[in-house]
Design goal:
Radius of gyration of chain B: 19 Å
Largest sheet of chain A: 7 strands, parallel
Strand content of chain B: 5-15%
Strand order of the largest sheet of chain B: 1-2
Shape of chain A: globular
Radius of gyration of chain A: 18 Å
Helix content of chain A: 40-55%
Order of helices and strands of chain A: EHEHEHEHEHEHEH
Distance between the termini of chain B: 47 Å
Shape of chain B: elongated
Number of strands of chain A: 7
Oligomer: heterodimer
């Protein structure tokens, strides 16, 4: 199977630019896949700057409504999507997207699933509460079904091994730094800050 | 931390999470234990008082970021993983 015959799907619940964030780091990856002739799809939570940046690269963007209170419906939608596009790999990040993808991909033959875990996903830093505890439990149980687990830090290795992930599926993936993106990010934040100041003056 | 290092700045940081992967104590910056405010203050004073050490850390840090934390490295490594998945898909299709 060549790159040109392949589809890659990226899934995240985050719609915002976050310099150094996984989704921002996916953009140059998407660009490379598109350059190789692959079909690339990005399923995100809602329209936003990140969706537009992906679209500008030639990536198909489908704002995907993740319904927290109707996960069965969300799972069905995603499963239909995977069956329709038959991706070689569906790559998710964020515990909600990870859980949904694993669940949806279970009955879709041929789809490889990958996740990127960040330090924010670490058990020690996750938010507490009954829903999060339940998600965490499912997440740990399902992690070993991933075909590739990207870790942004060696600090996550022990947790992932303890979840039963085989060593050859673990890929260390330190956060990539793009100096130009940092400049753009600073500009974006200044823009928001200026807007805040201006709107504050108008109200005052 | 990585962004500061990429711009050639010397870094004083606490040794938490993934920070020690970027800040190698005495080579690319100074690391102190988490919660040790006195040690962090001491590290900052040390850097403020030694321009040569700041330059040395800054240069070493920028080189480390270029080597380990570059977008090119990330793209190449991830494409290599996808290439393996493509091979598996091909194998299972035959």
């Amino acid at each position: 199977m060549s790159w040109k015959q392949s589809t890659f799907v990226f899934i995240s619940t985050n719609a915002e630019h976050d310099s150094g964030g996984v989704e921002d780091r996916w953009l140059p990856l998407m660009r490379e896949l598109v350059a190789r002739g692959a079909t690339v799809q990005f399923l995100c939570m809602a329209e936003g700057p990140l969706a537009q940046a992906a679209r500008d690269l030639g990536v198909g963007v489908a704002p995907y409504i993740l319904d927290r209170w109707n996960v069965v419906r969300s799972r069905s939608r995603l499963r239909k999507y995977l069956k329709r596009y038959e991706p070689v790999c569906a790559h998710s990040t964020g515990v909600e997207a990870d859980l949904l993808l694993r669940w949806a991909a279970r009955k879709v033959p041929g789809v490889r699933i990958a996740t990127t875990l960040t330090l924010a996903d670490s058990q020690r830093t996750r938010r507490r509460g009954p829903i999060n505890a339940l998600m965490l439990r499912f997440d740990d149980a399902g992690l070993k079904s991933e075909d590739a687990v990207f870790l942004e830090s060696e600090d996550l290795l022990d947790e992932v091994r303890a979840s039963g992930v085989h060593a050859d599926k673990i890929v260390l993936d330190p956060p990539a730094h793009d100096p130009d993106d940092l400049s753009r990010s600073v500009a974006r934040h200044l823009e928001v800050y200026r807007g805040f100041i201006v709107s504050g003056r108008m109200k005052g | 931390v990585i962004e500061a290092m990429a711009h050639g700045l010397a870094v004083a940081a606490t040794a938490v999470d993934g920070v020690p992967e970027a800040v190698v104590d005495g080579e690319t910056g100074l690391l102190v234990a988490a919660g040790d405010a006195a040690a962090l203050g001491g590290a900052l004073v040390r850097l403020l008082g030694d321009a040569a050490e700041r330059r040395r850390f800054g240069q070493a840090g920028a080189a480390l970021v270029a080597e380990l934390f570059s977008v090119e490295r990330m793209v190449d490594d991830t494409i290599a993983v996808y290439d393996g998945l493509l091979g598996e898909a091909e194998g299972s299709a035959q």
